[in-house]
Write a structure and sequence with these properties.
The protein is an alpha/beta fold and 374 residues long. It contains 20 helices and 6 strands. The termini are far apart.
């Protein structure tokens, strides 16, 4: 049985159009990526119920949630159950035979990162995906936390970029659909500022606002932070759980200092450029390698100015549960102090524009670091 079509869907029209175009061109293999809570499953559910897709595949659309799988046989078993196959120890070949001999089908593997992430199961999962995509009549969509596609699969081009936060207008529409339009616009925007326009955060906070009002929720946020929207039982209704799952990724575990970098970035709303990452001299052995890990897991992102940033909910989660050590803060404090000294020394000269530009790019960062050091 397919999950229901989302009743609230805003801000993903461009991605939806791109995906539908890939379906028009043939039998696509699509990876929908992004950080936890960014709306990957919602987009996929919208695709599977779209009239064009439903007409093309009719009853041969299979939506498999992969959260409970920890190995290739378990994943094949989940798929087999949706196909109505007889249970067995390993249904890999039965699944492949079913799709090979059947009509054109669409297979969706939602939250595939659960079984793909562990390094011990990754090779066999990628081999299984490769075999699935050898079937010319089988369209495949996967959703995964992060920004990294499994290898061994001829993903259809152009690749879909990892889902970004919603645009402000779309975020407002989503909020209003849940909490009504009776709230002052400035208070709504203040609430949205806490979410980083992450759909999961918007949904959870909007439901609370609907019950308690904006002012009460803004007041509670001051003390509760992300705990306010972390009472749910799974990652679709619990923001902290969603973030924690990403933090426990084997990719993070294999590069422990990536979490140290994430912790210091939690104090830096303006983010850092590659040059600043190196100039600051953090006690991190391979800081650009750590940056790459954060990008691959979508715990951080690179903005239009190529500055490494972290979304508000993740920043708040890190500051609350994994604050940066003094050894990480002091290099940042020293770096900004030297920047301010440089500005003062060049003030009124032709050399003054460089420090001014760098200070402007780090204005909120400097405020936060100074406040943290007081």
């Amino acid at each position: 049985m397919l999950p229901g079509e989302p009743k609230i869907f805003h801000g993903r029209d461009s991605e939806l159009a791109d995906i539908l175009e890939l379906f028009r061109q043939g039998t696509p293999r699509i990876a929908i990526l992004g950080s936890g809570g960014m709306g990957k499953t919602t987009l996929t559910r919208t695709v599977v119920h779209h009239e064009e897709v439903a007409t093309k595949y009719h009853g041969n659309r299979f939506f498999v949630t992969c959260d409970t799988a920890s190995s290739k046989p378990e994943l094949a078993g989940l798929i087999g159950a949706h196909l109505g196959l007889k249970p067995g120890i390993d249904l890999t070949w039965a699944v492949l035979k079913h799709f090979s001999s059947g009509p054109p089908s669409l297979l969706i593997l939602d939250n595939l990162e659960t079984v793909w992430e562990p390094t011990k199961s990754r090779p066999e999962i990628e081999e299984f995906l490769s075999l699935l995509t050898d079937i010319n009549t089988l369209a495949l969509i996967i959703t995964m936390c992060g920004a990294e596609r499994p290898s061994k699969v001829p993903w259809t081009r152009p690749f879909l970029q990892p889902l970004p936060p919603l645009a402000q207008d779309a975020a407002r529409k989503m909020f209003i659909d849940i909490a009504d339009d009776k709230h002052p616009v400035e208070e709504v925007d203040e609430i949205l500022g806490l979410t980083g326009n992450m759909p999961l955060s918007i949904s959870l906070l909007a439901h609370l606002v609907d019950m308690e009002g904006c002012r009460e929720i803004l007041s509670r946020w001051e003390t509760e932070k992300t705990s306010l929207i972390s009472d749910g039982y799974d990652k679709r209704s619990n923001l902290e759980l969603s973030i924690s799952i990403s933090l426990s990724s084997p990719r993070i575990a294999s590069t422990p200092q990536a979490q140290d970098l994430l912790a210091i970035l939690s104090l830096l709303p303006d983010g850092l450029s590659d040059l600043e990452l190196k100039q600051t001299k953090f006690p991190i052995t391979d800081i650009l390698g750590c940056k790459a890990v954060l990008l691959r897991t979508a715990l951080a992102y690179s903005d239009g100015h190529k500055r490494l940033k972290v979304l508000v909910p993740i920043r708040e989660h890190m500051r609350k549960l994994f604050p940066p050590a003094d050894g990480m803060i002091q290099p940042m404090f020293k770096h900004f102090h030297e920047l301010l000294v440089s500005y003062k020394a060049t003030l009124g000269t032709s050399l003054g524009t460089g420090p001014i530009d760098r200070i402007t790019s780090n204005y909120t960062n400097i405020q936060n670091i100074l406040q943290n050091g007081l």
